[in-house]
Amino acid sequence: MARIVIDPVTRIEGHLRIEVEVEGNKVNDAWSSGTMFRGIEKILRGRDPREAWIWAQRICGVCTTVHALASVRAVEDALGIEVPENATLIRNIIAGTQNVQDHIIHFYHLHALDWVDVTLALKADPAKTSQIAQSISDWPKSSTTYFKAVQDRVKALVSSGQLSLFSSGDWGHPAYKLPPEVNLLAVAHYIEALEVQREFIRVQAVLGGKNPHPQTFLVGGMATSMDGNEPDAVINPERITLLNQLVKNAQTFVQQVYVPDVMAIAGFYKEWFEIGVGIGNYMSYGDFPTTNIHDPAGFMVPRGIILGRDLANVHPVDPGQIAEYVTHSWYTYEEGDQAGKPPAQGETSPKYTGPRPPYEFLNTDEKYSWVKSPRYSGMAMEVGPLARTLVAYASGKQQVKAAVDGALAQLKLPATALFSTMGRIAARALEAQILVGQLSEWVAKLDDNMAHGDLKVHNGDKWNPDSWPKSCQGFGLEEAPRGSLGHWVEIEDKKIVNYQAVVPSTWNAGPRDGKGQRGAYESALQGTPIADPNRPLEVLRTVHSFDPCLACAVHVVQADGTAYGRKALVL
Amino acid sequence: MSQSAPTQIRLLGLGNLMRTDDAVGMLTARMLTDSGRLPSTIEVIEGGTLGLDLLGQLDGTSHLLVLDAVDSGAAPGTQKSFQGDELARLPTSKSVHLLGLSDLVNAMLLMGAPPMEIILLGVQPESTDWGTALTPAVEAAQSGLIEAALEQIKRWTKEISSATTETVPVLAIP
Predict the structure, then answer these.
(1) What is the C-alpha separation between B56 and B42, in angstroms, rounded?
(2) For residues A479 and A483, what is the distance between their CA atoms, to the nearest angstrom?
(3) How far apart are the C-alpha atoms of B67 and B147, rounded to whole Å?
């Protein structure tokens, strides 16, 4: 049995190592290892809880904003603070924008090259690409001349001998199945998406002051002034017009480019609707409150759990059932390493017992990751766009049901096809489409409130620490682009005494627990076909379908001391 | 970029402030801002490790001067400049940054609107280990880097003012 190591997995954020055991051209077993330690919990101890979000947000520069939001929600929960409706709307717009932008970047810039062979795009007939483009979408950039120009630019890049952005592809791999013309279409949209994502994220800069790391979060609401008559207010009629414009442009791109591209590419890779199935348990904390954070029934993205791929039943989420295990993680617990600890009583005591680099393989019978193993009621869960889509679908959310059923009908596939690598990709695209449509409604509501003189963005009743109880604890839940995110905080004498973050990639990238139950990546990799053990592209397809973001699952110390090359290298 | 497009010189400092000499571009860009020696028309961007997130801020740049740590195997503190296709060819695979400068340059080329000129002034690092202070050799190289940056900006400013009616060559992939 051959053991293949992919380290680092590229085109992700952070450091991830995957080891797979291959037997008869299929993955027999897999191990997922986060190779950096995240120490943010320790950094937050002793700090003022009102500033926790500023620090927590720095966990990651890619899913910027998400940790700020989870953090203010946790502190507000602990202190019993209700935020005004406008603050909820602004947070929804910021978080929704982040989700949509992240999905676009993930599909085009982090994942598409697993399915699209850039070198084949050079062999395409631009006239045929134009025909295909016009047959699947009304998107105006679809002429032969346009695709020819794109092809020439890519040709120039490739002939310069430096593939740069495209350097990490396994070009010529037998698993690539798109005709040259579709490859060219996707490469053109890869380039367009660079422009779209940079333009759309201006929403973050308008409402958050800057991007990444918006600066306007505040325990109790937002620090975004609102005034219809004040040109210097963050939110005024002029800004509403700008927000509407940015949202509309992104919506057009998602509808006319992103979703049609995913559908077209999925049509050529239908077998991937049966590969990468995974755990079969899906969890969504739910998010985007329409009333307030304590009313999940009013969430746009519903809360719930699906067990064993049974879409007939949606189970409730009880945050008290979440516990983290470290049996196979480089940490130790006071109670012993077999214990499960709820995040509210969480402990971050690193204890590296792995091999000294350089090493060939990890000892996966022992501890092998910096990521802990979170479990819900003892069960492993997959989180993310697919989990959210399935929970919404099974809960009978009309908009989601219509979108999913429409896509399945177009591809002539049953609902069970969603439990797969390609299902994750399709769910992410459909989620982006629904969410970007919702954004304009939140902007409209904000505009309406402003017109009616409701300018309140912050509740300062409990800003003064003297109004706080001597000790309290709380948690903030959120659906970040990559899935369910939770921050837990314990406050004593006006200071943070304990802080824990259980992030989406902890659920998905985590190692086995004490009972040997695999994490989501590990489980999804079972049975993955491998055409060429020297180029395990298929493994990357499934891992990438989760949109790994390890900077947040683990952080700070780089375990390997790899020396960089001796050629001129920009650091 | 059309020939009539307005000119905008930008100075971009790159690097991770927590990785010793990797921060040399960022720290030198700050020193330049604080020195008061830069013409007011020059925009300074502290790019950190943002990679492609910088595309938005670089929009409309006609001349881009980048300060960064560059490992070319020379003695620590050695300054070297790169331009044209040398830049696009710089390897990036093991960059400390999420996406390297050459990825950024190539993304701008693919998007069809790159700056007319990009020059990278690089300094050979001694260490990129964890730490917030530069090593002595690299710290000593900062004054030379500042002079080289000011010199380049002066040259560009002169070119721009004397070339208002001339055709400006667009940076092309070789």
Answers:
(1) 17
(2) 5
(3) 12
> Is residue A375 situated within a structural domain?
yes
Spatial contact of A121 and A152, defined as CB atoms under 8 Å apart: no
Q: Under CATH, to which class is B9-162 assigned?
A: alpha beta
pLDDT at A167 over 90: no
Task: Say if B54 is an interface residue toward chain A (CB within 8 Å).
Answer: no
DSSP A226: B
**Domain limits, chain B:** 9-162
pLDDT at A424: 98
Q: Are B39 and B157 in contact (CB under 8 A)?
A: yes
| pLDDT at residue A13, as a whole number | 66
A558, two tokens: 């780089």
**Ordered DSSP codes for A366-396:** S--BSS-EEEETTB--B-SHHHHHHHHHHTT
Say if A416 falls within a structural domain.
Answer: yes
Tell me the pLDDT tens digit for each residue of A172-225. 999 999 999 999 999 999 999 999 999 999 999 999 998 888 999 999 999 999
Q: What is the ipTM, given to two decimal places?
A: 0.78
Residue A568 has pLDDT above 80, yes or no: no
- Report residue A570's pLDDT band, with 50, 70 and 90 as the boundaries: very low
Report the run of H or E that residue A218 belongs to, with start and end.
strand A217-218
Query: Which pair of structure tokens corresponds to residue A108?
Result: 């085009």
Known active-site residue A544: no
Q: What is the CATH number of the domain that holds A495?
A: 1.10.645.10
Q: Among candidates B164, B162, B166, B143, which has minimal Cα distance to B154?
A: B162
When divided into structural domains, chain A yields a total of 1
Q: Is there a domain that residue A566 lies in? A: no
Per residue in A389-398, is it b (16+ CB within 10 Å) or e — as a string?
bbbbbbbebe
Full-model pTM: 0.90
3-state secondary structure of A35: coil
User: Of A157, A201, A564, which is closest to B106 when you measure between CB atoms?
Assistant: A157
Contact between A290 and A141 under an 8 Å Cβ cutoff? The reply is no
SS3 state at A300? strand
For A448, the token pair is 């309406």
Is A472 in the active site?
A: no
Distances (CA, A) of A5 to A22, A197, A409, A518, A535: 11, 32, 38, 18, 11
CB contact under 8 A, A570 and B103: no
How far off is chain A from B159, nearest CA to CA, in Å?
28
Domain that holds residue A521: 2-558
Task: Please enumerate in sequence order all residues whose Cβ is within 8 A of that of A18, keeping only pairs 6 or more positions apart, or say none.
Answer: A5, A6, A7, A9, A30, A31, A32, A33, A521, A525, A539, A543
